[in-house]
Amino acid sequence: MEISKIQYIDNRRNIYSPSLIRKQSFTIPIRAQIQNDCFVRTAVDEKTNYRDNIPLRSLSFLGGIKFMNYEFETKFNKVFFTKLLREGIPDAYSDIERLIPREELDAHRAMGTFSVKSQVAIKHLRKYKNSMFPVEREIFTILENLSKKHPNMTLQELLRLRYPQVEQSLINQQSEVLNKINMMIRSLPKKEYLAMRKLIQGAFDKIFAQDPLPEERFGRKRFFMEFEKVEISDKRFKDKIRKAADALPQSSDSVNAFIIKYSQPYRLRYDYNKKEMIKLPRDSQEIGERLLEPSVATVDHIHPQASFKKEQEAILEGELSKDELSTLRVTTLTSSKTNSAKTNIPLDKYIKQSKYDIPQRIQNQIDRYIYICEKWLKQGRIEDADLLADYIIVLRDEYQRRSKLLTIDISELESKLPQLKAAVQKHNEKMEIKLNKRQNNKNQINNRTKNKNRALDYAKEILGKDLEDRKVQKHSSRYSG
Q: What 3-state class would DSSP assign to 213?
């Protein structure tokens, strides 16, 4: 789920402040024990303005889960995460120093920031260099160096300068992988061997074609689609072939593949309305956005949704106690790329198979949250700091609940909690005084209005005619002409 900038608007008044929303819509502390036996949502009766807990026994969500708890999402909403991202948050699962808010990428797209001369586009991209993944950062460095020699060229024109050299390197990489598969399939039964040979030979024909059109080029995804159609009786052996084919270069992990792909004049997409393939032009704007897209911030469920669903169904069936597990769908900020890679993999398994030191990355992110919490407290953003402190504690509890490999240290925050709670209490008292003062002023105005109306009614009763309110009478000028 991607973070986007949203505003809450009341048509009768103004934009709600996030603190007001939080105060009105979330009245149960996040650490309180959930009392409901099923997931509930909060609804407001239009006549009484009271909130009622309504069981969602007919709700279908994420593959048919019947009950859903929105307690976490209600308290830690998109506005909260947007505020955090503006402070600069590192990725929880990689070495990215600062996740890119979606709103920034959307702004670049709306303004066409990267479709201009490369010297201008590079200037806009440079501030995101430390937010890019290795392949994207290397592509940026190539473009940056070429732009110094050709400042008036576009990003795509710069990529095309490297096309001849890169194409030869890519062909060598692809050929090496396919030749390895060629050697592997020699042990297959003849029918299966011939089917695989036909597939591989077709791939070679496309790889070595002279100046092929985009639709005629070798495509990694297309190769895998055709491979899955090949019948191989030994499923384990087919898995070995598939694993070997995974080494085929792709734009997400190969500089050469990236340059070849985005140097093309257009890409093909199937139009379901027209029921035909259409050509969509590739341009410099797409290249600039592609360099940033993997680092765009998303929220990842620490505990996979599929596993969460099974737990909740087990609780409903009485197979598990709700006291043993969390019913909160806790999320953390991650990059789009690492979120996609994790999918439904349990956290500990993902930690073991990742090339990154995820435990350290998670602790770094927690430390950043603690720093921001202290910063907001010093700036007088008491409600924001209080909410962030709650989020840090929820994160720590969820990580410890879901992982045997993580040990989260929030001792620095815990030492500041008394100071924070004292500031929150003082802030709430001040807000209560302001609210009472505002209400008293409103009551005084209402009383004056009532007294004035009573006076006008009394005068009408005595004199037998209506009297005009002198405050709203309009007088013409004494002199005219």
A: coil
AA identity, residue 202: G
- Contact by Cβ (8 Å): 177, 245: yes
Q: Cα separation of 21 and 373, whole Å?
A: 20
* CA-based torsion, 206, 209, 214, 220: positive or negative: positive
Q: Are strands 40-44 and 51-55 parallel, antiparallel or unpaired?
A: antiparallel
Collapsed DSSP state (helix, strand, coil) of residue 101: coil
Average pLDDT over residues 358-386: 95
Phi/psi for 436 (5° steps) reads: -65, -40
Bridge partners (DSSP) of residue 296 are: 100
Of 4-8, 226-230, 333-337, 389-393, give the lowest mean pLDDT range. Answer: 4-8
Q: What is the pLDDT of residues 124-143, one digit of tens each?
A: 999 999 999 999 999 999 99
Name the nearest CA neighbour of 92 among 289, 358, 295.
Answer: 358
pTM: 0.75
Provide the residue count of the chain.
481
* Cβ contact 173:185 at 8 Å: no
Task: Break the chain down into helix, strand, coil percent, rounded to 5.
Answer: 60, 10, 35
CB 291 within 8 A of CB 136: yes
Are 1 and 298 in contact by the 8 Å Cβ rule? The answer is: yes
Separation of alpha carbons 206 and 223, rounded Å: 11
SS3 278: strand
- For 148-172, write each residue's pLDDT tens digit: 999 999 999 999 999 999 999 999 9
Asked if 329 and 304 count as a contact pair (C-beta separation under 8 A), the reply is no
pLDDT of residue 470: 55
The CA distances from residue 148 to 130, 136, 355, in Å, are 20, 19, 34
DSSP 99: P
